[in-house]
Design brief:
Layout lengths: L12 E4 L7 H7 L5 E4 L5 H11 L3 E5 L8 H13 L4 E6 L1 H14 L3 E5 L10 E4 L6 E4 L7 E4 L9 H18 L7 H23 L4 H16 L6 H13 L3 H16 L4 H11 L4 H11 L6 H4 L6 H9 L11 H13 L8
Length: about 350
């Protein structure tokens, strides 16, 4: 018997497959955009030039203001260029930095955008947006932050540095794992999250080891899209990873990858059905251990210390995590967060308690 549930389709039109970047002009026309600014980071100027050529006379310029943590200054630059060029939409090229900034701009200005996805992190399919970090951080949740169109072309991730591909893929895996037991999960989300975990667990290491493996890239990117598009609300893993990486200015995806085995091991006694799905998807009796090993296989730091968290600031990290209130299937207290962080700092193999 299927329990009662609620599910909403994401409003974004998705193009998936090799060569789909070539359809960007037609997609812009279909979406009613005729003057598009391209938003990217400085490292993506070459791709921006390629996209500008595909857009032709629809392109009104390129803004390379995207940087990590989406500072207010970058937002102001994008908004000014959108106004100065009389754009009626924009294209965001990249992963977390460009897409994150694009979502903040779209939510605040109502300009529609096309997301051209070049990592596996999945930020583009979350309606949550943020600007800046620390005390001045602004954030919200708005469906207008989502791209009108998202293009997933596996050819565009071939040139990713192996560590970036690995870390962004593990970030996607973390979304899928928590979607198995997050608040508001349902059979649709759980089925597709399990599929995402299986595809990422099998094909991400192959794509990292051999970026020319088109089949592995395609499977990993598809798994990342599933993880991004069909998700439930976040639990303790995302709370810890987000708070710690903001506090210490750590790499976003690598922090999520390092925390995931330990947060999952903590929750394991409270999520038997989810653990059974994880065992099937990862083909293991020890999902936290398998995820820990996956990080090591792909050359990612096994510990938060390896990502850059200072051990002497452990108490500060626990304090900022405890200030965030939200759902988790297993209740936790200060001592639990401290234990999870201690193990993640040390990088020891995860163990399930309780």
């Amino acid at each position: 018997m299927i329990d009662r549930f609620t599910y909403s389709n994401p409003p974004t039109r998705v193009l998936f497959g090799g060569g789909t970047i070539g359809e960007i002009r037609a997609e812009a026309f279909r979406a009613g955009m005729s003057r598009l600014l391209i938003l990217c980071s400085k490292g993506r100027r070459e791709l921006a030039d390629t996209v500008a050529g595909l857009l032709g006379d629809m392109n009104v310029g390129t803004c390379d203001a995207a940087v990590p943590n989406m500072p207010q200054e970058a937002f102001d630059v994008v908004r000014e260029q959108l106004q100065a060029t009389k754009a009626d939409g924009f294209v965001a090229l990249g992963g977390g930095s460009a897409i994150g900034l694009a979502k903040s701009v779209a939510a605040s200005t109502r300009f529609p955008f096309i997301g051209v996805i070049t990592t596996l992190s999945g930020s583009e399919m979350s309606s949550r947006w943020a600007l800046g970090r620390g005390l001045g951080r602004k954030a919200g949740d708005d469906q207008r932050a989502l791209p009108t169109v998202a293009i997933y072309d596996p050819d565009l991730i071939q040139g990713l540095p192996p560590r970036v591909m690995a870390a962004s893929g593990m970030n996607a895996l973390a979304h899928a794992v928590e979607s198995l037991y997050g608040e508001g999960t349902n059979p649709v989300v759980q089925t597709l999250a399990e599929d995402a975990i299986a595809r990422l667990g099998t094909h991400l290491p192959k794509a990292v080891a051999d970026p020319s493996n088109a089949g592995a890239r395609s499977e990993a990117l598809y798994g990342a899209w599933l993880a991004a598009s069909f998700r439930s609300s976040i639990c303790i893993h995302h709370v810890i990873a987000q708070q710690v990486r903001q506090l210490f200015d750590l790499d976003h995806a690598q922090t999520h990858a390092a925390v995931l085995p330990y947060a999952l091991a903590f929750n394991a006694p409270a999520i038997p059905a989810a653990m059974e799905k994880l065992r099937r998807a990862l083909k293991t009796d020890d999902p936290p251990g398998a995820i820990y090993q996956l990080n090591q296989t792909m050359g990612l730091p096994a510990s938060l210390a390896g990502v850059g968290m200072p051990a002497e600031r452990l108490a500060d990290a626990v304090d900022v995590v405890m200030k965030v209130k939200g759902y988790n299937p297993r209740p936790y207290a200060h001592v639990d967060v401290k234990a999870i962080l201690e193990r993640a700092l040390a990088g020891e193999p995860p163990r399930t308690d309780g």
